[in-house]
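Per reviewer request, we include the raw input and output of the structure prediction for the construct analysed in the revised manuscript.
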Amino acid sequence: MSKARTGLFTPRAPLVLPCLAGLLLALAAPAASAPVPDSPAPWTVTVPLRADPLEITVPGSVNLGSGPAGGSITASMGTVTVTDTRGGNPPWTATVTATNFTTGAGTPSQTIPNSDVAYWSGPVTASSGTGTHTPGQPTAAQRVPLSSTVTAFSGHKTGEDPYSVSWAPTLVITIPSTAAPGLYTGVVTHSVT
């Protein structure tokens, strides 16, 4: 189903939530949508309406701590939750990616590559409704680098009632021995489809 609206429209993408992380590694709120430029005349936009949403929520900010060059930092990112109120019994998959972590001008000595940022989802910390859920990396031994998109969690709604599942992922950052001192930041993005 779609609905035509006349005027300016600012797109919103609730299914992809970026976070900013730093070394004093802190995560920040999602970036705002870019404004749509003014139009000289009214125009029509067709907007698909989602009557049955699938949503993901992530922490607004997290301080991941600090560590020495050549060391590592292990820190929880806080709680991530997928909520599924769609009709039927649809599956879902949550994925996660990260950028490099940088400080200053982001020179090689001011960069922690995302291949040195590992992620593990851990087990379910809370759930409601009926469905199945599978962690992507249930234990620290199964952590994976965020140099490419990885599955954080997946599930399958099995009832008509709203369904949600939460987990508290952990990041393990390996700091290069050549890393310059500074506050390193990077973006960690969780998405659900």
